[in-house]
Each structure stands twice: as structure tokens, then as C-alpha cells.
Amino acid sequence: MLRTRLNDALKAAMKAKETRTIATVRLILAALKDRDIAARGKGNLEGIDEDGILAMLQSMIKQRRESIVLYEKGQRLDLARQEAEEITVIEQFLPRQLGEDEMAEAIMAVIGDVEAKSLKDMGRTMAALKERYAGRMDFHKASARVKEQLG
Fold first, then answer.
1. Range 100-150 has CATH code 1.10.10.410
2. Structure pTM?
3. What is the pLDDT of residues 5-30, one digit of tens each?
């Protein structure tokens, strides 16, 4: 379904001549193709699944946010703006992100489900969060919250 949305978005952007959207969706599709090829090498003939695509999109957003910080430090505001525009395009394909309160509730529920007691259980807790909330949660923020709860 997400693959179809990406292809449809590319076609629509080409018709509307939206250059930033075209370039960004092409980057997404190229990254997806690379991951599919890697997955096929590991025996998964259908490529990565929806959760894998969502994780890839979040990774792309994270990379762009890091680039924005560096570009702003280097006084390259034009490149920072370009990265921000790409983030906006990528976010169109992600499901609604959990708010702070929803994230806190989800973390507490998962900690209870996996019976996490200390920081030693952080890996299991984060794995369960990633499995249940792929594409819907900022796992960098979640990691800090889990550490806070278990620490």
C-alpha cells in the first residue's frame, strides 16, 4: 500500500511539476529499492515490509534533521531550507505521530507488558515499542523516556 502511495505521489508531482516533491519521492524510491535488493539477498523475495518502509522513512527524516543543524551552523540556510522541505514531503507518507501523552502511555504499557524492571530490560522494551509503533513514534525521544522510567 505504501509503495503504491509513493508511486502515485511521484506521478502526481510530475504532473503538477513540483520539483522538490519529485526529487524527494525519487530519493525515497531509490532507498526502498536498495533495501529491497538487500532483503532479497537475505532470502526475502518480496523486499522489505510496510514496517521496514516506515522505519526507513523515519531514518531519512532523522538524517535530514541532523543535516539541518549542520547547515545552520555553517550558515547554509538555503540547504537547511531544502532539507526541511524534504522532511515535509517524507512526513506525508508516515502515519500520525503519537503525541507526548500518548507516547508516555504507550511506554508505560509496554514496560508493563514486557515486565521491565531495570535498565537491563531497556533493549527488550525498545524492541517491543519499535514492533508496535513503527512509524508512529520518535524512538530517540522514546529511548530517553524509557531510560528515565527504568533508571
1. yes
2. 0.76
3. 999 999 999 999 999 999 999 999 99
